[in-house]
Design brief:
Blueprint (H helix, E strand, L loop, with lengths): L1 H7 L5 H13 L5 E7 L14 E9 L2 E9 L23
Antiparallel strand pairs: 1-2, 2-3
Helix pairs in contact: 1-2
Length: 95
């Protein structure tokens, strides 16, 4: 997803990330019915991606409405861990 790539490259402005997503979809002739960056726990819109953010998308393609979402700000392996958590002994790297 273009938005995830831009986020990984350091983009944190929600409006910029939304524009990137819309531009990537437009390249395939897709106009989303809905596209928003929201807080995953409340679904409230965000202006900046500082922590976990849900990218929620709905688009109609060929008469079928597709709904998808992706979390930004999570580890690549998908495990969620609070930023303040201390790694367990087994998670710490050894010299």
């Amino acid at each position: 997803m273009a938005t995830a790539d831009a986020h990984a490259a350091g983009e944190r402005d929600a409006a910029a990330l939304e524009w990137i997503a819309r531009t990537a979809m437009a390249a395939y002739g897709v106009e989303p019915d809905y596209l928003a960056l929201v807080a995953p726990d409340s679904l409230a819109p965000v202006t900046r991606v500082d922590g976990e953010v849900l990218v929620a998308v709905a688009a109609t393609i060929g008469g079928v409405r597709l709904i998808d979402n992706q979390l930004l700000g999570t580890p690549a392996d998908g495990r969620r861990q609070p930023a303040s958590a201390t790694p367990t002994h087994s998670e710490r790297s050894t010299p």
